[in-house]
Amino acid sequence: MNEEKIVWFNGTLMGETEVHLSPFDLGVSVGLGVFETLSAYRGLAPTFPQHYERLVSSAAEMDLSVPDAEEIADAVESVIRANGLGEQRARVRISLGTGARDLGGHCSSADVQDYIIVTAIPQDDPKPMAELVLVPKRCNEHSAVTGIKSSSYANHVLSYRYARKAGADEGVMLNTSGNICECSMSNLFLVKDGKVLTPPLSSGCLPGVTRAVVMKLCQEESILVEEWDLSEDDLFTADEIFITSSAREVQPAKMVDTEMQCPGPLSKRIAEAYQRNIHNEA
């Protein structure tokens, strides 16, 4: 029997089975909410400020309120400690929802309030490399939730499941214009002729925290990095591919059933720079 996990719910640590949400909650019924997932190393979450900033930005688009950064940082630390994860790598999730309101945002009770849940579970280190497959599901770069880490995440989850069933680790998603957008659970980078390329935010991709860190590291390492509209063909003509997320960090990748060098020299160099950066911060 699995041991019950401790979570932080609206300012209080409690067992996961003690959390109660209304069946009329819009986060439950229609996915109206936002979330952040970040990695902690030996109790410290070095990218917390960037994740908190994105949480606030996403919440504003959903008309949700967010506790101040100090309170959420304390919640993250408390949940990690309460679950005995202070000496290892942990996956922390911060979820924010609306409470039981109607679709217009109105509530029938003065007791209804936005809620926030913080959880932490053990997280393994990423595999040395990932295999990718193109998935049929597309990102809508014109969607109302583009650029928001929205709880309405079914499109990406289904794309991830498609990729896993196809024997891959991640699915590459195009947008409605037919350009590369992102992977189902990560941002994507290509290397061509010594230059690092990644889809622009206008493609509909999430403004990933690790994506931003990597672009900054490339500049510091004197590696040319550019946002570029990338086509499906670029996946098969690139010299290297790597993907980024809090969970995957910087993970060298290649398309399934191809002979692309993996890891390539630039991917390896950037991954090593990321490791130095993240552990210096932690």
Automatic annotation (TrEMBL):
GO biological process, one term: amino acid biosynthetic process
EC number of the protein: 2.6.1.42
Source species, domain of life: Bacteria
Family in the record: Belongs to the class-IV pyridoxal-phosphate-dependent aminotransferase family.
Keywords, sorted A to Z: Lyase, Pyridoxal phosphate
Any GO molecular function: lyase activity
Gene3D superfamilies: 3.30.470.10, D-amino Acid Aminotransferase, subunit A, domain 2
Protein name: branched-chain-amino-acid transaminase
Cofactor(s) essential for the protein: pyridoxal 5'-phosphate
Organism: Oceaniferula spumae
Swiss-Prot/TrEMBL catalytic activity: L-valine + 2-oxoglutarate = 3-methyl-2-oxobutanoate + L-glutamate; L-leucine + 2-oxoglutarate = 4-methyl-2-oxopentanoate + L-glutamate; L-isoleucine + 2-oxoglutarate = (S)-3-methyl-2-oxopentanoate + L-glutamate
Record InterPro entries: Aminotrans_IV, Aminotrans_IV_CS, Aminotransferase-like, BCAT-like_C, BCAT-like_N, Class-IV_PLP-Dep_Aminotrnsfr
GO annotations of cellular component type: cytosol
Pfam families assigned: Aminotran_4 (PF01063)
Upper lineage: Bacteria, Pseudomonadati, Verrucomicrobiota, Verrucomicrobiia, Verrucomicrobiales
Functional pathway: Amino-acid biosynthesis; L-isoleucine biosynthesis; L-isoleucine from 2-oxobutanoate: step 4/4; Amino-acid biosynthesis; L-valine biosynthesis; L-valine from pyruvate: step 4/4; Amino-acid biosynthesis; L-leucine biosynthesis; L-leucine from 3-methyl-2-oxobutanoate: step 4/4
Magnesium recorded as keyword: no
CDD domains (UniProt xref): PLPDE_IV
